[in-house]
Design brief:
- This protein is mainly beta and 459 residues long.
- Helices cover 3% and strands 66% of the residues.
- It has three helices and 27 strands.
- It has a 19-stranded antiparallel β-sheet that branches. Strands 11-12 form a two-stranded antiparallel sheet. A two-stranded antiparallel ribbon has the order 15-16.
- The longest helix has 6 residues, at 13-18.
- The radius of gyration is 25 Å and the shape is globular.
- The mean pLDDT is 90.
Length: 459
């Protein structure tokens, strides 16, 4: 998959309201953009070792290249950049099933391994051209992650299901700084402490094809490559986010037509990773204390008809709703220039819409034609930690039409086209959270047309 799109640069509110499709002068002079070329290949195989013992193995390889191109938003952050990341990974899972009297048990254990090797190199930028004698970054970063997991599921009398398990996680980053030497070199091995993530859940099946469920679990989210290596500087002090999540929900099917799934959750998160914009236009990622993340995720789907032998074989309506209440519990930030301490505790985390709604209609035909229409609503969201600036909400309407053909038993041919943002709504696609100097706004995709062809083979 190839991607290539321009970087117009974030605008102030006045610039955005005056001409939302304009670019900042630096972006025009240097033709700044983002380009990438990626490819992924994976395979999995399931095999029965015994009547009650099954194992599944999956392997993948990936490669993502970033050809040379000018990027950035000002002379301090502007650069001529090139990078490449290749990865390998695998996962093996073994499940053992056995009846213990009236109790059905399933024990699952396995391991997962991932290794990514990437390099990034950048030079100075002058009117869109590479400045050969201004090498700014030359770093190789190898990420290695190992996960070992186990889980036991008990199918108990009275329609109770209990699941308990956990994982042991290892993560490290090996840095090779090919530009700096001596005390300024960033080379070295960054290791996170091994993390145990336990989880417990309980499900009660009801008589009317519904069930209620609840769970408690601890998890962690390690910093990404772009957070560890931000602007060519390795942040060795960045810690993984970790927290405890509680969930309760209801799911089921009514009359074989109405499918409902509603879940409420609350997570208390520590070491929250926050992006901080600097005056130079560069970004810095840092741990920002603790946060509370509460929310509701609700989905409903209704089958209008399902007739395999009719002209119209399937028609359905669906609606998804998400409520997000994400707030800082304890977050204080020191101003780099004045030294003043700003306390954002109790404020909403910026960049997150409290209410998000999506709904749509899907239809399939016996001849192979299919189509859908979907509508999205995003609520207002704060832009700054201080919650003193907000971005207005917006709506989007999309549609897609395609033709799908299955032939030779295992081949599936898919030809499709569609329109995104039918109303041509101006909206902020990339929000510059905490952007310096009020430069928060970057226009989203206007009305656009797309198409594609897929050929799939099923083993």
């Amino acid at each position: 998959m190839n991607r290539n799109f321009d970087l117009p640069g974030n605008l102030t509110l006045e610039e955005y309201q005056d001409a939302p499709r304009q670019s900042i002068p630096f972006a025009i002079e240097n033709n700044t953009r983002l380009t990438s070329e990626s490819a992924n290949l994976g395979a999995s195989y399931q095999y029965d070792l015994l009547d009650n013992l099954t194992s599944t193995t999956a392997l993948y390889v990936s490669n993502s290249a970033t050809p040379e191109h000018p990027t950035g938003t000002n002379p301090f952050s502007g650069e001529f950049f090139k990078g490449n990341t290749s990865g390998i990974g695998g996962r093996i899972t073994t499940a053992y099933t056995r009846s213990l009297g009236m109790v059905e048990t399933v024990f699952t254990a396995g391991a997962e391994f991932q290794k990514d090797r990437g390099y990034s190199i950048s030079f100075g930028l002058d009117e869109g051209e590479l400045v050969a004698d201004d090498l700014r970054e030359s770093i190789e970063l190898v990420t290695t992650q190992q996960i070992y997991f186990a889980q036991m599921e008990l199918d108990l009398p009275y329609d109770f299901i209990i699941t308990g398990g956990g994982s042991l996680n290892y993560l490290d980053y090996a840095v090779e700084d090919m530009l700096h030497t001596g005390t300024s070199s960033q080379s070295g091995l960054l290791k996170t402490e091994p993390t145990i993530a336990p989880r417990f859940s309980l499900v009660k099946k009801l008589d009317n094809d519904f069930s209620i469920h609840g769970s408690i679990g601890r998890g962690f989210s390690p910093p990404g490559r772009h957070e560890i290596n931000a602007n060519g500087r390795i942040n060795s002090n960045l810690l993984p986010e970790d927290g405890v999540n509680y969930e309760i929900g209801l799911r089921g099917d009514a009359l074989n037509r109405l499918n409902i799934d509603v879940t409420a959750y609350t997570m208390q998160l520590n070491n929250v990773i926050i992006q901080r914009r600097l005056e130079s236009g560069l970004s810095r990622f840092e741990n920002g204390g603790s946060a509370s993340q509460k929310g509701i995720e609700a989905m409903a789907g209704y089958s209008l008809f399902n007739s395999p032998n009719s002209v119209f074989t399937m028609g359905s309506l669906w609606i998804n709703y998400t409520y997000n209440d994400y707030t800082f519990k304890n977050y204080q930030l020191q101003d780099d220039e004045t030294g003043d301490i700003h306390d954002f505790s109790g404020n909403q985390i910026p960049g997150i819409s409290p209410h998000v709604l999506s709904t749509g209609f899907d239809i399939d035909t016996h001849s192979g034609f299919y189509g859908n229409v979907n509508f999205y609503f995003f609520d207002d969201r704060y832009i700054t930690n201080a919650n003193d600036v907000a971005d207005e909400g917006y709506t989007l309407l999309n549609t897609k039409l395609g033709y799908r053909l299955k032939f030779a038993n295992n081949f599936i041919f898919d030809l499709h086209t569609g329109i995104k943002n039918i109303q041509n709504t101006p909206y902020v696609g990339t929000l510059g959270v905490n952007g310096f100097g009020g430069r928060y706004y970057n226009l989203g995709t206007p009305r656009s047309f797309y198409g594609g062809v897929n050929l799939k083979y099923q083993f």
